[in-house]
Amino acid sequence: MMSFDQNAFLIIFTASMISISCGLLGVFMMLRKMSMTGDAISHAVLPGIVIGFFVSGSQRGLEVIIGAGILGILATLMIDWLRRKARVQLDASIGITFTLLFAIGIILINLLAYKVDLDQECVLYGEIAYLPIDLWITGGGQNMGPRIMYLALLNLILVGGFIYLFFKELTVTSFDENFSMVIGIPAGVINLGLMSMVSYTTVSSFEAVGAILVVALLVVPPATAFLWTKKLNQLIKITIGIGIGIAILGYYLAYFFDSSIAGMVVSVAGIVFLASALYKSKLFSNRFGTSTKQESFGN
Amino acid sequence: MINHIEHPIIEIHDLTVSYDQSPVLWNVDLSLPSGKLIGILGPNGAGKSTLIKAIMGLVSPSGGYVKLFDKSLEEVRSRISYVPQRESVDWNFPASVLDVVLMGTYGKLGLFKRPGKKEKELAMECLEKVGMQGFAKRQISELSGGQQQRVFIGRSLAQNADLYLMDEPFAGVDMATETAIFELLKQMTAEGKTVVVVHHDIYSAVNYFDWFIMLNLHLVASGPKETVITEELLRKTYGGKLNLLTKVSDLIRQKEFNPLKN
Prior knowledge:
The structure holds two protein chains of two kinds.
Chain A: H1 6-31, H2 35-44, H3 46-56, H4 62-84, H5 90-111, H6 120-125, E1 135-137, E2 143-146, H7 147-165, H8 167-175, H9 177-182, H10 187-228, H11 232-257, H12 261-288, H13 291-298
Antiparallel strand pairs in A: 1-2
Chain B: E1 10-19, E2 22-32, E3 37-41, H1 48-55, E4 63-68, H2 73-76, E5 80-83, H3 97-102, H4 106-109, H5 117-129, H6 145-157, E6 163-167, H7 175-190, E7 194-198, H8 202-208, E8 211-216, E9 218-224, H9 225-228, H10 231-238, H11 242-257
Parallel strand pairs in B: 3-7, 3-8, 5-6, 6-7
Antiparallel strand pairs in B: 1-2, 1-4, 8-9
Helix pairs in contact in B: 5-6, 10-11
């Protein structure tokens, strides 16, 4: 029943890399209380993808990633502007921004439908199961393996590098933005850098997991890890561990139930989170409620 | 009653700050001497925190300017240290006490560099000064309010600055800690550093500070303790608040029995 072939390995490997990239960024989004901004970005990049697609004529073009990156930053700036200048609450300004940009994206897809081979479903849901047949063939006809795997690898290297290089700056701006500005760390630039990485990661992953499930990968593994530790290094390590774990478990469950892999990966993440939350709340009530009982058992 | 001085460490010229068109600081014009322990007094909403934030460039003024060490803020950033209000951050952040104090060294480290052994030793020294050396490995979510405040002061000490601006560092701190920290601040001013503190308690303030800034949207007074702690100026600062007025008279009466000049 259980199989471990090359395709399974490639899919699990790629899914792990995507969930690690998302999780790493998600840790800092969570610490900045900006998890929902990640949600907004993942939807707001749609018009950028369509325009990039239209300009380059293919969904593999660099234009797609640049277009999405610009829209992601635009969404971040718009949310920030609505909040600071127009005095709209954060949740409302997120809601306004991403629905507006997403709607523009849908209209663009319809308008350009005859020129662009792209539909909402592909952007929203993605499908990692097609990964082994979507190959990267070089100019000389050399088969290099799955294209999406390389996208995910490049994405992971860039996200990892970004976080490694700016770890100190990301940490201090997440903890105390005013203080970081006082000591001369450009908090606005760091923030835009993080948002750009989130936009890029979203685009890089949307073919595999889609724009909706990417949000889950940004939010759920860090939130789960935060239930288990109060140390930043541990938080990152546990997030990575959860990312790999849910990719393996999600793949085999999807195989077993003959269902969507990305859907299963995110469902597993949700279940791991709920189980952690229940276990932690049980520990909590044990400590205060039933501790005397346990002691009497000891005697 | 505004004393201007020669070669000030902070010079504020006609500073006006407004939020949403309603001014919170009006035409503040003052100069402060170096090597002094300076207290900012005033009722709630008088613009005390705003004044500190304007000096640090965290709010942009609608008029006027601030000069530090006779230069612009950008040129002297590394010589200035800031202690924000404790409530301005989320203490559930996953960091240890040492991590937070180390952040004080980040300004001088520059991009890409991580704090090393030298920075860690400095941070431990600073923790010792605020009496928190035993808590270095403790997560900040497990600290009491007073301990959090001491961590923030420790972080500002790690900046190794010449001018310290502290926003309500004694909110939620017990008397013993308050006295210990004031001793530390006095020692720092004796070494030639300048410390500016927003303080809410007039009673303890008169015992500790050398120089006072009294604010109530306008600048009421700025000068050495002997010249500005008078009934008239305190009334002007806290005016309109009835129960406070009686407290102020109490204070003045105390002052007559126990002259401050000693």
